[in-house]
Protein backbone atom coordinates (compact mmCIF):
# COMPACT_ATOMS: atom_id res chain seq x y z
CA UNK A 1 0.00 0.00 0.00
CA UNK A 2 1.42 3.40 -0.93
CA UNK A 3 -0.16 6.79 -0.59
CA UNK A 4 1.56 9.51 -2.60
CA UNK A 5 0.60 13.15 -2.86
CA UNK A 6 2.20 15.81 -5.08
CA UNK A 7 4.82 17.87 -3.29
CA UNK A 8 2.83 21.08 -3.61
CA UNK A 9 -0.07 19.46 -1.72
CA UNK A 10 2.05 18.37 1.22
CA UNK A 11 1.39 20.70 4.11
CA UNK A 12 1.45 20.02 7.81
CA UNK A 13 -2.27 19.96 8.61
CA UNK A 14 -3.31 19.64 12.25
CA UNK A 15 -6.42 18.59 14.05
CA UNK A 16 -8.61 21.32 15.47
CA UNK A 17 -7.43 22.26 18.94
CA UNK A 18 -3.95 20.74 18.57
CA UNK A 19 -0.95 22.70 19.86
CA UNK A 20 0.84 24.76 17.21
CA UNK A 21 4.24 23.75 15.93
CA UNK A 22 6.99 24.90 18.27
CA UNK A 23 9.68 25.65 15.72
CA UNK A 24 9.58 28.33 13.00
CA UNK A 25 10.64 26.10 10.13
CA UNK A 26 10.11 22.42 9.49
CA UNK A 27 12.73 19.72 9.70
CA UNK A 28 12.41 16.50 7.71
CA UNK A 29 11.95 13.02 9.12
CA UNK A 30 11.59 9.44 8.01
CA UNK A 31 9.66 7.21 10.41
CA UNK A 32 9.85 3.43 10.48
CA UNK A 33 7.50 1.15 12.43
CA UNK A 34 5.18 4.15 12.43
CA UNK A 35 2.14 2.34 13.86
CA UNK A 36 -0.86 4.57 14.54
CA UNK A 37 1.19 7.73 14.01
CA UNK A 38 1.19 8.87 17.65
CA UNK A 39 4.95 9.35 17.64
CA UNK A 40 4.84 11.07 14.26
CA UNK A 41 2.12 13.37 15.62
CA UNK A 42 4.32 14.36 18.56
CA UNK A 43 7.27 14.95 16.25
CA UNK A 44 5.06 17.00 13.94
CA UNK A 45 4.25 19.24 16.90
CA UNK A 46 7.99 19.56 17.48
CA UNK A 47 8.52 20.79 13.92
CA UNK A 48 9.31 17.63 11.94
CA UNK A 49 7.54 16.90 8.66
CA UNK A 50 7.81 13.28 7.53
CA UNK A 51 8.85 12.72 3.96
CA UNK A 52 8.07 9.01 4.36
CA UNK A 53 6.41 6.78 6.96
CA UNK A 54 6.77 3.01 6.87
CA UNK A 55 4.82 0.25 8.62
CA UNK A 56 4.03 -3.34 7.72
CA UNK A 57 0.54 -3.37 9.30
CA UNK A 58 -2.16 -2.45 6.74
CA UNK A 59 -4.54 -1.15 9.43
CA UNK A 60 -1.87 1.11 10.89
CA UNK A 61 -1.08 2.40 7.40
CA UNK A 62 -4.77 3.15 6.91
CA UNK A 63 -4.82 5.05 10.20
CA UNK A 64 -1.90 7.19 9.07
CA UNK A 65 -3.55 7.99 5.75
CA UNK A 66 -6.92 8.73 7.38
CA UNK A 67 -5.41 11.41 9.59
CA UNK A 68 -2.69 12.86 7.39
CA UNK A 69 -3.57 12.21 3.74
CA UNK A 70 -0.69 14.46 2.71
CA UNK A 71 1.85 12.11 4.31
CA UNK A 72 3.53 9.53 2.06
CA UNK A 73 2.92 6.12 3.63
CA UNK A 74 4.48 2.86 2.49
CA UNK A 75 2.91 -0.32 3.88
CA UNK A 76 5.94 -2.58 3.71
CA UNK A 77 8.45 -4.35 5.92
CA UNK A 78 11.42 -2.01 6.38
CA UNK A 79 13.70 -4.84 5.29
CA UNK A 80 12.05 -4.70 1.85
CA UNK A 81 12.58 -0.98 1.24
CA UNK A 82 14.47 -0.09 -1.94
CA UNK A 83 17.95 1.01 -0.75
CA UNK A 84 18.62 2.90 -3.99
CA UNK A 85 15.76 5.29 -3.31
CA UNK A 86 16.63 5.68 0.34
CA UNK A 87 20.24 6.64 -0.37
CA UNK A 88 18.96 9.67 -2.31
CA UNK A 89 16.91 10.98 0.62
CA UNK A 90 18.09 13.92 2.68
CA UNK A 91 16.62 13.46 6.15
CA UNK A 92 17.18 15.38 9.35
CA UNK A 93 15.76 12.66 11.60
CA UNK A 94 15.19 8.91 11.30
CA UNK A 95 12.71 7.87 13.98
CA UNK A 96 10.74 4.83 15.00
CA UNK A 97 9.11 2.92 17.82
CA UNK A 98 10.64 -0.51 17.29
CA UNK A 99 8.99 -3.82 18.20
CA UNK A 100 9.71 -4.90 21.77
CA UNK A 101 12.82 -7.04 21.64
CA UNK A 102 13.80 -9.79 24.05
CA UNK A 103 17.31 -10.29 25.36
CA UNK A 104 19.39 -12.78 23.41
CA UNK A 105 19.11 -15.26 26.29
CA UNK A 106 15.31 -15.02 26.31
CA UNK A 107 14.74 -15.71 22.61
CA UNK A 108 12.87 -19.01 22.33
CA UNK A 109 10.67 -18.88 19.23
CA UNK A 110 11.06 -17.72 15.65
CA UNK A 111 8.74 -14.77 16.25
CA UNK A 112 11.01 -13.69 19.14
CA UNK A 113 13.80 -13.21 16.59
CA UNK A 114 11.78 -10.90 14.31
CA UNK A 115 12.11 -7.73 16.45
CA UNK A 116 15.89 -8.19 16.50
CA UNK A 117 15.93 -8.42 12.72
CA UNK A 118 13.92 -5.19 12.54
CA UNK A 119 16.44 -3.54 14.90
CA UNK A 120 19.30 -4.62 12.63
CA UNK A 121 17.43 -3.32 9.59
CA UNK A 122 16.92 0.03 11.32
CA UNK A 123 20.64 0.49 11.78
CA UNK A 124 21.31 -0.49 8.19
CA UNK A 125 18.95 2.33 7.20
CA UNK A 126 20.94 4.74 9.37
CA UNK A 127 24.15 3.91 7.51
CA UNK A 128 22.39 4.19 4.13
CA UNK A 129 20.56 7.46 4.75
CA UNK A 130 22.94 9.07 7.26
CA UNK A 131 20.36 11.36 8.89
CA UNK A 132 21.60 14.09 11.19
CA UNK A 133 19.78 12.46 14.10
CA UNK A 134 18.29 9.10 15.06
CA UNK A 135 15.45 8.55 17.54
CA UNK A 136 14.47 4.99 18.45
CA UNK A 137 12.05 4.02 21.24
CA UNK A 138 11.79 0.63 22.91
CA UNK A 139 11.52 -1.07 26.29
CA UNK A 140 13.30 0.55 29.26
CA UNK A 141 15.22 -2.72 29.73
CA UNK A 142 17.05 -2.14 26.46
CA UNK A 143 18.49 1.01 28.04
CA UNK A 144 19.14 -0.17 31.60
CA UNK A 145 18.81 -3.97 31.77
CA UNK A 146 21.98 -6.02 32.35
CA UNK A 147 20.74 -8.65 29.89
CA UNK A 148 20.95 -6.02 27.13
CA UNK A 149 24.45 -4.72 27.97
CA UNK A 150 25.99 -6.51 24.99
CA UNK A 151 23.29 -5.10 22.70
CA UNK A 152 23.90 -1.54 23.91
CA UNK A 153 27.64 -1.90 23.45
CA UNK A 154 27.23 -3.29 19.93
CA UNK A 155 24.78 -0.53 18.98
CA UNK A 156 27.00 2.24 20.36
CA UNK A 157 30.09 0.85 18.63
CA UNK A 158 28.31 0.57 15.29
CA UNK A 159 26.91 4.08 15.52
CA UNK A 160 30.26 5.52 16.60
CA UNK A 161 31.92 3.96 13.57
CA UNK A 162 29.30 5.73 11.45
CA UNK A 163 30.04 9.05 13.17
CA UNK A 164 27.18 9.18 15.71
CA UNK A 165 27.29 9.83 19.43
CA UNK A 166 24.69 7.83 21.36
CA UNK A 167 22.50 9.05 24.21
CA UNK A 168 20.32 6.66 26.25
CA UNK A 169 17.49 7.50 28.64
CA UNK A 170 14.33 6.14 30.20
CA UNK A 171 11.51 8.70 30.37
CA UNK A 172 8.08 8.41 32.03
CA UNK A 173 5.18 9.84 30.03
CA UNK A 174 3.58 10.97 33.30
CA UNK A 175 6.38 13.54 33.67
CA UNK A 176 5.17 15.16 30.45
CA UNK A 177 1.47 15.52 31.19
CA UNK A 178 0.22 12.05 30.21
CA UNK A 179 -2.26 10.47 32.71
CA UNK A 180 -0.30 7.23 32.76
CA UNK A 181 2.90 5.85 34.25
CA UNK A 182 4.46 4.65 31.01
CA UNK A 183 8.22 4.35 30.86
CA UNK A 184 9.93 4.21 27.48
CA UNK A 185 13.55 3.56 26.64
CA UNK A 186 15.09 5.96 24.13
CA UNK A 187 18.19 6.04 22.00
CA UNK A 188 19.02 9.40 20.45
CA UNK A 189 22.14 9.50 18.29
CA UNK A 190 23.44 12.55 16.45
CA UNK A 191 26.25 13.34 14.07
CA UNK A 192 28.69 16.11 14.93
CA UNK A 193 28.37 19.05 15.21
CA UNK A 194 24.80 18.39 16.34
CA UNK A 195 25.48 15.96 19.20
CA UNK A 196 27.13 18.53 21.44
CA UNK A 197 23.92 20.56 21.62
CA UNK A 198 21.62 17.73 22.67
CA UNK A 199 20.22 17.29 26.16
CA UNK A 200 17.24 15.26 27.32
CA UNK A 201 13.99 17.14 27.99
CA UNK A 202 13.18 18.05 31.57
CA UNK A 203 9.86 17.01 33.14
CA UNK A 204 7.20 19.69 33.00
CA UNK A 205 7.13 19.96 36.80
CA UNK A 206 3.33 19.86 36.75
CA UNK A 207 1.35 16.84 37.98
CA UNK A 208 -0.27 14.84 35.19
CA UNK A 209 -4.08 14.63 35.26
CA UNK A 210 -5.60 11.57 36.91
CA UNK A 211 -7.62 8.85 35.20
CA UNK A 212 -10.78 10.14 36.87
CA UNK A 213 -10.17 13.70 35.70
CA UNK A 214 -9.49 12.63 32.10
CA UNK A 215 -12.33 10.13 31.74
CA UNK A 216 -15.09 11.57 33.96
CA UNK A 217 -16.98 13.35 31.18
CA UNK A 218 -16.71 10.35 28.87
CA UNK A 219 -17.91 7.93 31.55
CA UNK A 220 -20.93 10.18 32.20
CA UNK A 221 -21.72 10.82 28.53
CA UNK A 222 -24.30 8.00 28.22
CA UNK A 223 -26.06 8.72 31.49
CA UNK A 224 -24.20 6.42 33.90
CA UNK A 225 -25.23 7.47 37.43
CA UNK A 226 -21.97 6.21 38.95
CA UNK A 227 -19.65 8.45 36.92
CA UNK A 228 -18.99 11.06 39.62
CA UNK A 229 -18.25 8.51 42.34
CA UNK A 230 -16.12 6.47 39.95
CA UNK A 231 -14.07 9.52 38.93
CA UNK A 232 -13.47 10.43 42.58
CA UNK A 233 -12.11 6.94 43.20
CA UNK A 234 -9.98 6.89 40.04
CA UNK A 235 -7.83 9.69 41.40
CA UNK A 236 -4.49 8.26 40.33
CA UNK A 237 -2.45 7.82 37.19
CA UNK A 238 -3.10 4.81 35.01
CA UNK A 239 -0.72 1.88 34.70
CA UNK A 240 0.87 1.47 31.30
CA UNK A 241 -1.54 0.31 28.63
CA UNK A 242 -0.46 -2.97 27.04
CA UNK A 243 -1.10 -3.43 23.33
CA UNK A 244 -0.47 -7.17 23.26
CA UNK A 245 0.78 -9.34 20.43
CA UNK A 246 -0.42 -8.97 16.86
CA UNK A 247 -0.54 -12.75 16.60
CA UNK A 248 -2.17 -13.84 19.86
CA UNK A 249 -5.05 -12.82 22.12
CA UNK A 250 -7.74 -10.20 21.93
CA UNK A 251 -8.30 -6.69 23.26
CA UNK A 252 -7.86 -6.46 27.02
CA UNK A 253 -5.78 -4.34 29.37
CA UNK A 254 -2.92 -6.76 29.67
CA UNK A 255 -1.68 -9.53 31.95
CA UNK A 256 -3.00 -10.27 35.42
CA UNK A 257 -0.88 -7.66 37.16
CA UNK A 258 -2.05 -4.91 34.83
CA UNK A 259 -5.70 -5.90 35.21
CA UNK A 260 -5.28 -5.84 39.00
CA UNK A 261 -3.88 -2.30 38.81
CA UNK A 262 -6.83 -1.23 36.64
CA UNK A 263 -9.27 -2.85 39.07
CA UNK A 264 -7.86 -0.63 41.83
CA UNK A 265 -8.96 2.30 39.65
CA UNK A 266 -12.46 0.84 39.27
CA UNK A 267 -11.92 -0.45 35.73
CA UNK A 268 -12.70 -3.93 34.45
CA UNK A 269 -9.69 -4.80 32.33
CA UNK A 270 -10.85 -8.18 31.03
CA UNK A 271 -12.00 -6.71 27.72
CA UNK A 272 -13.00 -3.43 26.08
CA UNK A 273 -16.44 -1.84 25.80
CA UNK A 274 -18.09 -0.66 22.60
CA UNK A 275 -19.47 2.43 24.36
CA UNK A 276 -19.32 4.15 27.76
CA UNK A 277 -21.65 2.78 30.49
CA UNK A 278 -25.28 3.87 30.14
CA UNK A 279 -28.05 4.72 32.60
CA UNK A 280 -28.77 1.03 33.27
CA UNK A 281 -25.19 0.19 34.24
CA UNK A 282 -24.98 -0.36 38.04
CA UNK A 283 -23.62 2.70 39.81
CA UNK A 284 -21.15 0.66 41.88
CA UNK A 285 -19.91 -1.64 39.08
CA UNK A 286 -16.56 -1.44 37.32
CA UNK A 287 -16.91 -0.17 33.73
CA UNK A 288 -14.70 -1.27 30.87
CA UNK A 289 -12.72 1.20 28.81
CA UNK A 290 -13.60 1.96 25.22
CA UNK A 291 -10.87 2.26 22.61
CA UNK A 292 -11.39 6.03 22.59
CA UNK A 293 -10.97 6.19 26.36
CA UNK A 294 -7.78 4.17 26.06
CA UNK A 295 -6.59 6.72 23.49
CA UNK A 296 -7.33 9.50 25.98
CA UNK A 297 -5.11 7.72 28.51
CA UNK A 298 -2.40 7.82 25.84
CA UNK A 299 -3.06 11.56 25.24
CA UNK A 300 -3.98 10.83 21.62
CA UNK A 301 -6.30 13.60 20.34
CA UNK A 302 -10.03 12.90 20.09
CA UNK A 303 -10.01 13.62 16.37
CA UNK A 304 -7.31 11.05 15.58
CA UNK A 305 -9.15 8.31 13.68
CA UNK A 306 -8.25 4.63 13.98
CA UNK A 307 -8.69 2.02 11.25
CA UNK A 308 -9.82 -1.55 11.81
CA UNK A 309 -12.00 -3.42 14.28
CA UNK A 310 -11.93 -2.94 18.03
CA UNK A 311 -9.00 -5.27 18.65
CA UNK A 312 -6.91 -3.76 15.84
CA UNK A 313 -7.72 -0.23 17.01
CA UNK A 314 -6.81 -1.01 20.60
CA UNK A 315 -3.51 -2.60 19.65
CA UNK A 316 -2.57 0.53 17.73
CA UNK A 317 -3.39 2.62 20.79
CA UNK A 318 -1.70 0.29 23.27
CA UNK A 319 1.55 0.17 21.29
CA UNK A 320 1.71 3.94 20.79
CA UNK A 321 4.23 6.37 22.21
CA UNK A 322 2.16 9.17 23.79
CA UNK A 323 2.43 12.27 21.56
CA UNK A 324 3.43 14.68 24.40
CA UNK A 325 6.47 12.55 25.20
CA UNK A 326 7.42 12.25 21.52
CA UNK A 327 7.03 16.01 21.22
CA UNK A 328 9.31 16.67 24.18
CA UNK A 329 12.09 14.47 22.81
CA UNK A 330 11.55 15.87 19.32
CA UNK A 331 11.93 19.42 20.55
CA UNK A 332 15.20 18.50 22.26
CA UNK A 333 16.51 17.06 18.98
CA UNK A 334 15.22 20.04 16.96
CA UNK A 335 17.02 22.44 19.28
CA UNK A 336 20.29 20.57 18.88
CA UNK A 337 19.98 20.59 15.10
CA UNK A 338 19.03 24.23 14.84
CA UNK A 339 21.61 25.49 17.33
CA UNK A 340 24.38 23.75 15.41
CA UNK A 341 23.14 25.11 12.08
CA UNK A 342 23.03 28.67 13.44
CA UNK A 343 26.64 28.62 14.59
TrEMBL record:
Alphabetical list of InterPro entries matching this protein: C5-Methyltransferase (IPR050390), C5_MeTfrase (IPR001525), SAM-dependent_MTases_sf (IPR029063)
Keywords from the UniProt entry: Methyltransferase, Restriction system, S-adenosyl-L-methionine, Transferase
One of the Pfam families matching this protein, by short name: DNA_methylase
BP-aspect Gene Ontology terms: DNA restriction-modification system; methylation; negative regulation of gene expression via chromosomal CpG island methylation
Its EC number(s): 2.1.1.37
Annotated signal sequence range: none
Molecular-function GO terms, alphabetical: DNA (cytosine-5-)-methyltransferase activity; DNA binding
EC category: transferase
SUPFAM superfamilies membership: S-adenosyl-L-methionine-dependent methyltransferases
Region Disordered: start-end pairs: 1-20
Compositional bias (Polar residues): 1-11
Similarity remark: Belongs to the class I-like SAM-binding methyltransferase superfamily. C5-methyltransferase family.
Protein name, per record: DNA (cytosine-5-)-methyltransferase
Taxonomy of the source species: Bacteria, Bacillati, Actinomycetota, Actinomycetes, Kitasatosporales
